Amino acid sequence: MKKWFLIAGYFLFWSMAGWAQSSFFHTSGQQILDGNNEVYVAHGLVLSGWLIPEAYGLKLDEVHDRHINAYTDIRANIRALLGNDADAKLFWDTYTSNYVTTADLAAFKAIGFNSVRLPFNYRLLMSVTNEPDVFLEEGFQFLDNVIQLCKTNGLSVLLDMHACPGGQSHDAYADPEHTYWSEDGNGVWREHGVAVLWESNAQYYAATGRTPEANKQRTINLWREIARRYVNEPAILGYELINEPYFYTSSGVTTNDLRDLFIRITSAIREEDTNHIVFVEGNIFAEFIDGLTPPWDDNMALAFHRYWRETGYEDGVVQSYLDARSTYNVPLLMTESGENSNPWVYEINQLMESNGIGGFWWGFKKVDVNSVVYHVDKTEDYQYVIDNWRDAPAVDEVRVKGGLMDLANRVSTTHCTYIPGYFEALFDPQFPVLSRPFADHVIPGVVYFSDYDVGNEGIAYHDSRYKNTTYEGEGWNLGWTYRSDGVDLSTCGTGNQYNVAYIDSDEWVKYTVRILHAGVYDLDICAATPYADRRIQFFLDGVDLTGAVMLRQGTGWDDWQHVIVTNLTLPVGPHVLKVLMLTNDFDLSGMSFELSNRDFVDRDGDQIDDHWEIRYGGDLDPAANADQDGLNNLQEYFADTDPTNAASSLVVAMLLPNEPGKILEVSSSTGRLYTLQYRASLLSGGWSNLQSNVAGDGGMLSLSDTNAFPSGYYRVGVSRP
Prior knowledge:
Layout: H1 2-12, E1 26-28, E2 31-33, E3 43-46, H2 55-58, H3 71-82, H4 85-99, H5 102-111, E4 115-121, H6 137-152, E5 156-163, E6 178-183, E7 189-194, H7 202-208, H8 212-230, E8 236-240, H9 255-272, E9 277-280, H10 283-286, E10 300-306, H11 317-328, E11 332-337, H12 342-354, E12 358-361, E13 365-367, E14 374-376, H13 380-387, H14 397-410, E15 417-418, H15 422-427, E16 441-443, E17 445-448, E18 461-462, E19 489-491, E20 498-500, E21 508-515, E22 519-528, E23 535-540, E24 543-550, E25 561-570, E26 573-581, E27 587-595, H16 610-615, H17 633-639, E28 652-655, E29 662-667, E30 673-679, E31 688-695, E32 700-705, E33 713-719
Helix pairs in contact: 1-6, 4-14, 8-9, 13-14
């Protein structure tokens, strides 16, 4: 963390540069107002995976999933694998410094976010081994610096106690302090967490001496300390008291217990801070609001999370939020959502905005997971860490360190792969009506089927299953990789290593392509299917291009077969290519377009080979001279020089005096013929050939004059064979 503090400290002096509020965020009836009493609708990004990384986001449960892999356990296991404290500290310091940087915060603001939600583990600020008031100055210093950096970039901060003392949930995100093991009925032993913020547990009490009441009091005391320190900080949007509380009513815990704890925390905060909003959310992943109403404070708001549900009012839950807002005159804030397809994100965001509800979005960075903005690639050494995460009799500590440091360095945004779609779904007003290129698809060339356009369902693509609307749903992208759309993508061993899979009939995908030169092209389709009679069809700008194309049946899903469709006439310029799936059950890797005639072709009759024009940018004007070197494109073509580079020219390197055997040395190109001519006077007589049609060799070509002509003039001609 020292590296982070050093960077952050530089900006403390300038902390007010991006901030112009005169007071604090506060509630007024059903609205949240900023410090200038203007309505404030949060458009926020959750800094997920940073201070409380989760195993699924790092792929640490890819091979070994019997453990719940809570944050404290992840830290302990990394220390055990590395074998020493120094390397563990180096990893965490590097990871933390790289994961979120000042450049990231500036980018968030530029994209359109006005706030960030900062999930933190109570262990950052309070000792786990001392009760109840041992606070950690290093953790608060870290928090101070983050808030100031956000403030510098004009971002408000929602402080989210993501993991509370004891653990507010049995799940990994809460980092529960007590776990146990049981057999799952299939002979596999699995670890389970206990929410000892709510539930009594004899084993936990024997080990720690702490009861649910003790953990509640520790939570109260910590929030009081947070409020004391940040009472005068206007950049703080508010305090999210407990992230996703989850208790089983069968344990005897009720929503009254939840409400009582919230009231006690609020009272402790108000002893120090009457300025900031308190946000409270209900049981079972913050979906329900039972126990949260009526309000007990005049500066509070109801928070909720929305995952894997319908994007309207179908299940009645969103309506229950709206009813509570109206009945109790209290604001609403969606403090988490995401983990779904980009069209789902768009629809939920529209639902919230239409009701004046702000939202925070989960899924900043993950390792090799599709529901993400920035994709962190796995190295071989990091895969070694994943493979040996648990139960390995021995590990190569050098490889483990290398793999973990690969991760720590690759989580930097500059080393991640940006996956378009998520941010566009939130901020691009054209997302629902216009598709945009995912990549620069140049024809002739290869277009990968996985790189279809960015845009909404029905605009950039159509897929029969494009969003997940139930907790038990199978998902929106059955391959769970690369992109977060309805189009199902999987990994493969060909092309760009991704393919369109799980295809249903009548699905389609679109590609914005840039055709460099009008011409007749051949289309090569790479597909795999073990079934017969699988068909596909291509359209260009809505007009049928190929008719139904029969794919070749192979021996399995890894048997990639090629089908070539010939003599397709394509016009120059930007166009939209649509691929329609006429049947189901085949996979698509890539498609390539090449001019049908591999030899000289001059479709536009400008004397220049179309292949040469394409090499240098497309349909070239023969009379143009873009590089201003004195040669037009037609002359550059015959000289086979680069028409975009003035330094690329036909060069006469040496001219010897007029005597028998004198030599001209000319820069030459393979595929060209060179002729040397002579004349005594430019005023009379003609040119005579000294050497004719000498094949270029790609280097300096020697052209000789063995005659004893008097002084005169020479010229070099260049032609195609």
